[in-house]
Amino acid sequence: MEFFGKASRLLVALVAIVTIAACSDREAGQEQAERVWPVKIATVSSSGDVTSRQFAGRVKAVQTVDLSFQVGGKLEEVKFSEGEIIPRGKLIAALDATDFRRRVKEARVNVQLLEKTLKRQRALEKRDMISAQQLDETESNYELAQVALENAQQELAYTRLSVPFDALVTRQLVENYTNVKPGQGIVRLQNVSEVRVQVSVPEKLLATIDADRVESITASFEFLPGQEFPLEYREHQAEADSVTQTYLVELGMPRPENVQILPGMTARVKLRLKQAQGEMRVPLSAVQTNADGTPYVWQIDENLTVSRVNVALGPTDGNTVQVTEGLQPGVRLVAAGGQHLYDGAKVRNYAGNGRQQ
Fold first, then answer.
1. Which domain covers residue 294, as residue numbers?
2. Does 265 reside within a domain?
3. pLDDT tens per residue across span 150-172
4. Residues with Cβ < 8 Å from 47, sequence gap 6 or more?
5. What is the pTM of this model?
6. Which whole number is the average pLDDT over 310-322?
7. Is the dihedral of CA 207, 208, 210, 214 positive or negative?
8. Which positions ≥6 away from 238 have C-beta within 8 Å?
């Protein structure tokens, strides 16, 4: 009897354990089924919205040159200071022009002498008192004298150095009263006729961007809060950086009045892109890949339940991607946080109002 009593108590304990385990499994299953996954939600739009991208930019000069004289001589006059902005056409330096003026005077006297000689010989030639060969030689000498005078006048003009563009003086390369040679750098200038801003653009964006899609490009500077300046495309490098796989793009803007925006300063560049009417784009982060490599997204219904929808994709700008098949405008998608979702999973939005910016 004692044996049956123990067996009975053991059986009751086992039944209780199994019952508790079954209840726990049911509760765990219910808890898993009722789990709500936090995700970021985006809305598919085809209304011609504008998206924006921002880049860190740096101001650079249009060009940097070492200005020099085309003739040699003693540097007699320097009319600049380092860090000064000098307008185009202003005299910046001059050589001692004494010897050059003397050469101009000598060449002019020689031209005048040959001009008188030529006039007399032409009169004599009409009376057959000199040969045609003598007259030809005098005419040739007169023309050569005129060329020599022009050269002397040009060399005299070369003794004065003017700024060829609106320039920032960055460095004086020789001291005043120094004897300089032709082509020797006198002053280093940076062309600041306009402000150039250089940014690094990802290869995906550069490869897919269309000029018709650009709404605007603007620059802002920390020392000018609240101000934005329109930028225009100038040029870009054809080779990508080997490490970052980005391309340097140069943008330009007129130099604002009463503001010193100098090479080396930093800028924040904002690119605003238009979405074509009827074109559907979704965040690139919303797209996932099936086992066979085809893309899909998690679509969200009115009950915040997700379902897998296969899609066909078009070009991407590195931030968003065009959807050509599989979606309709106005539906909501999981833009981030969908790695662990499954058909029928419940979600909640953790990132604002859910509209794609």
1. 35-48+278-349
2. yes
3. 999 999 999 999 999 989 999 99
4. 275, 277, 329
5. 0.59
6. 81
7. negative
8. 247
